[in-house]
Amino acid sequence: MFDADHVHQALAELNEGEAPTYEMVKRIGAASDWPLETWAADLLLTCQVGQQFDASRDDRVRYFLERRSGPIGAALAVSITLPEG
Questions:
Q1: Phi/psi at 37 (nearest 5 deg)?
Q2: CA distance 43 to 38
Q3: pLDDT in tens, 25-46
């Protein structure tokens, strides 16, 4: 898992029409190359990464998922529901 800022930095180095390679992203994002389980347990569940969406943002989320004209920008989306209280 790479931090979005590092991925965007890798993309900024490309010329128009070029595609990034995994090696390019890995080189630039070395500081944020976390195993999935580390990212989920140590970063996501401690609220250091990600965004919380509640009912007040349903319209915005629905817009991005249903009205898009191209692929979803994230390689992975995670939804974790915690018990109330």
A1: -65, -35
A2: 7
A3: 888 877 777 787 787 778 777 8
What spatial distance separates the first Cα and last Cα of the chain, rounded to whole Å?
Answer: 30
* CB within 8 Å of 76: residues ≥ 6 apart: 1
**Residues 6 and 28: beta-carbon distance below 8 Å:** yes
Query: Pick from 58, 55, 74: which is nearest to 66 by CA?
Result: 58
Alpha helices per DSSP H over the chain? 4-12, 22-28, 36-38, 58-66
Q: What is the CB neighbour count within 10 angstroms for residue 7? A: 18
pTM of full prediction above 0.70: no
